[in-house]
């Protein structure tokens, strides 16, 4: 087989894999979006609500089932990806998230510091999937997307802080309500007498402050645009204003085209009004 024929077959094979990957992604888009939001809700419940052993086992089983679906989706997309290295670079958080159920085994072994660190990582990966799901419901950059993003980040950060601060000496965040107030004050850039004491919860607070800067800047700009009536670069003028602007441009063009024309009612030689006395 000649080299051009082999290259053609290889290109067709890559194209078929890409088309199959796109079809699978389109088919699984809505189910994975719903499962990501459910996973985020279950994770918040796991961190904040004390459950009896039966419900705790049921919660773990539900999370494991959702995790298995994400694993199958990741493996299929990875197998169909033309460039495995590029796919891992673009989906490294997803690759980490499918490895995190090992945290449950670490809990049994009571590796406290490792468990706490992996809890923070798991919080980031689960929240990343949730944010991606919100981006499928609302277009990124819209006000609804930013609002839901702020709520999701605030609630998840509060759940993580409560879990990490529980049982810490001199902790001021001792209940889910206090954790939610702490996260809300950080998200709205307000002051509070509550402060995290553990290293992991302080890291969550730092990330929350950074996210709050971006969200508050967007909301401030949106309010300013609404109050001042400033249009975005891609927004069109109303038809009436557009017609007035065109008329003004036509008038200016006529004036520019006749710069030496005298005022109406005067002749060109004497500059006196025509038809009047000498």
In words, what does this structure look like?
This protein has 278 residues and is an all-alpha fold. Among the domains are: 14-110; 138-229, Helix Hairpins, CATH 1.10.287. The chain has 10 helices and no strands.
Output mean pLDDT: 76
Q: Hey, roughly how much beta strand do the residues contain? A: under 5%
Number of strands: 0
Q: What structural category characterises the helix and strand content?
A: mainly alpha
Number of helices: 10
Query: How far apart are the termini?
Result: 102 Å
Q: How large is the radius of gyration? A: 31 Å
Oligomer: single chain
Q: Report helical residue fraction.
A: over 70%
Order of helices and strands: HHHHHHHHHH
> Low-confidence parts lasting 5 or more residues at pLDDT below 50?
259-278
Q: Any idea what the shape is?
A: flat
Instruction: Give the biggest beta sheet.
Output: none
């Amino acid at each position: 087989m000649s080299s051009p024929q082999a290259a053609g077959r290889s290109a067709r094979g890559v194209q078929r894999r890409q088309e199959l990957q796109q079809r699978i992604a389109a088919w699984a888009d809505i189910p994975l979006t719903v499962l990501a939001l459910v996973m985020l809700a279950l994770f918040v419940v796991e961190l904040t609500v004390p459950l009896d052993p039966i419900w705790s086992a049921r919660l773990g089983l539900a999370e494991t089932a959702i995790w298995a679906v994400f694993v199958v989706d990741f493996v299929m997309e990875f197998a169909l990806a033309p460039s495995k290295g590029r796919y891992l670079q673009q989906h490294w958080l997803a690759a980490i998230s499918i490895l995190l159920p090992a945290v449950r085994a670490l809990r049994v072994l009571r590796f406290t510091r490792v468990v706490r660190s992996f809890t923070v990582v798991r919080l980031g990966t689960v929240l990343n999937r949730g944010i991606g799901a919100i981006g499928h419901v609302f277009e990124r950059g819209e006000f609804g997307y930013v609002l839901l993003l702020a709520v999701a980040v605030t609630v998840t950060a509060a759940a993580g802080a409560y879990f990490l601060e529980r049982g810490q000496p001199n902790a001021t965040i001792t209940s889910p309500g206090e954790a939610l107030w702490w996260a809300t004050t950080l998200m709205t850039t307000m002051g509070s007498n509550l402060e995290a004491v553990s290293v992991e919860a302080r890291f969550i607070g730092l990330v929350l402050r950074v996210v709050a800067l971006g969200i508050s800047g967007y909301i401030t700009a949106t309010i300013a645009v609404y109050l001042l009536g400033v249009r975005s670069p891609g927004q069109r003028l109303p038809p009436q204003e557009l017609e007035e602007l065109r008329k003004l441009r036509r008038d200016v063009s006529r004036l520019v085209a006749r710069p030496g024309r005298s005022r109406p009612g005067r002749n060109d030689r004497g500059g006196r009004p025509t038809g009047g006395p000498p």
